[in-house]
Amino acid sequence: MKYVYILESINFKETYYIGITSDLKKRFKEHNLKNGNHSEKFQPWKLKCYFAFDNPEKANAFEKYLKTSSGRSFCKRHF
User: Fold this and answer.
1) 57 phi/psi in degrees, rounded to 5
2) Residue 65 phi, psi dihedral angles, 5° rounding
3) Mapped to the 3 state alphabet, what secondary structure does 38-60 carry?
4) Which of 48, 63, 38 is nearest to 14 (CA)?
5) Residue 62 to residues 25, 32, 40, 49, 75: CA-CA distances in angstroms?
6) H helices then E strands: how many in the chain?
7) Which pTM was predicted?
8) Which stretches of the chain score pLDDT less than 70?
């Protein structure tokens, strides 16, 4: 199972992170730890929403779409 997820920064309004993982709980915890990656400077994060896919190719395509300008517009309208 693959999960496409959207995180929202609690301290920086309108700051989002879109990612993909096979272990959502573990990955969410990693985003809120001091680990030196890009998401660290916008901590803490809350889970805005996630989507479960049993087809990895569809999950990858959906994540890629959400990172486009039309995908970001879609997120703003629906989430």
Assistant:
1) -65, -40
2) -60, -45
3) HHHHHCCEEEEEEEEECCHHHHH
4) 48
5) 20, 24, 24, 14, 12
6) 3, 3
7) 0.91
8) 36
